[in-house]
């Protein structure tokens, strides 16, 4: 996924980042929470496929993912594709799932086999469609209902396996790669500043993704908004996803600095205040002028967070625009 933002080190900048603190206190605990939450989700899904039974665990797992989902580097660079296949500009996920249900595709019988399924049919957005898209359950006969329930359990188990693998890959490998930057055996980050820059890059790219994709895609233009382009609109998680992502990014920004960042913190406060004024958490009301403007204010506040981070934290760390932020190194 391509982000427009790019970053590079400024000559003579002073790095005040504590990469080890960010990894140990924020990133690894977040990954552990994600793994635990998806395991709980899988445990629920295997016993009950009813939305009311699954949704609390589903929401907890999605919140946990959003806390660290902006970290698209190392093992997460490829894992994110099948954990969170979005934006889905062609509607691939519901089509793939509908075909599987119609064919009673046997790949859904075991989570280990399901790792071979299309990324569009895996992860959170597959569950979102299976649980909340009425088109996948309307006029179901009993065999189709039973298959869909089994598919929900398999997708949840596959997601838990992905979360566990991502947690272990960071804990047993990539986390150490970041914290040993500059040491002779580290061939990825040749200086400590490079690891710091990689995390800062992910912070900036994540804020950009929220402004341009999570908000920009459904807002589009005042004359032509697109409510169904919102992330997780079926489950009305569009706004909760933004909140959870901002919470994770705020924690990362604080971890990257060993000094107060009051301008950045105030910008985050303003963004959360704007989120409080959004009425429909699924953004399905934005064809109304007032609803559109409320969401656009939130977009502006997220953009302001990014500006504050760049001016306050970026300047202190000695980083600024320079290369593609999706690279992460």
Automatic annotation (TrEMBL):
Keywords: Signal. This is Signal peptidase. It comes from Paracoccus tegillarcae. Pfam families: Peptidase_M75. Residues 1-17 form the signal peptide. Residues 27-299 form the Imelysin-like domain. It comes from the Bacteria. Its main location: other. GO terms for cellular component: cell envelope. It is found in: Cell envelope. The keyword Signal applies.
């Amino acid at each position: 996924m391509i982000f427009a933002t790019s970053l590079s080190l400024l000559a003579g900048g002073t790095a005040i980042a504590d990469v080890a603190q960010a990894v140990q206190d924020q990133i690894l605990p977040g990954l552990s929470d994600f793994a635990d939450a998806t395991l709980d989700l899988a445990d629920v899904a295997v016993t009950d496929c009813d939305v009311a039974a699954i949704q609390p665990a589903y929401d907890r797992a999605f919140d946990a993912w959003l806390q660290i989902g902006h970290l698209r580097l190392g093992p997460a660079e490829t894992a994110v594709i099948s954990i969170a296949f979005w934006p889905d500009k062609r509607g691939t996920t519901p089509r793939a799932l509908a075909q599987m249900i119609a064919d009673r595709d046997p790949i859904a019988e075991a989570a280990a086999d399901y790792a071979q399924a299309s990324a569009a049919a895996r992860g959170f957005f597959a569950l979102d469609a299976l649980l909340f898209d009425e088109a996948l359950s309307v006029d179901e006969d009993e065999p189709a209902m039973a298959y869909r329930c089994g598919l929900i359990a398999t997708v949840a188990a596959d997601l838990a396996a992905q979360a566990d693998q991502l947690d272990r890959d960071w804990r047993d490998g990539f986390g150490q790669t970041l914290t040993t930057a500059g040491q002779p055996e580290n061939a990825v980050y040749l200086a400590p500043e490079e690891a710091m820059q990689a995390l800062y890059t992910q912070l900036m790219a994540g804020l950009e993704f929220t402004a341009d994709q999570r908000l920009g895609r459904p807002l589009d233009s005042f004359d032509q908004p697109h409510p169904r382009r919102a992330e997780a609109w079926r489950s009305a998680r569009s706004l909760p996803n933004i909140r959870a992502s901002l919470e994770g990014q705020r924690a990362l920004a604080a971890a990257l600095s060993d000094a107060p960042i009051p301008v950045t913190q105030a910008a985050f406060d303003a963004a959360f205040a704007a989120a409080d004024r959004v009425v429909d958490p699924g953004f399905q009301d934005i064809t109304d002028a007032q609803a559109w403007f409320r969401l656009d204010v939130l977009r502006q506040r997220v953009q302001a967070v990014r500006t504050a981070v760049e001016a306050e934290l970026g300047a202190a760390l000695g980083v600024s625009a320079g290369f593609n932020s999706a690279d992460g190194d």
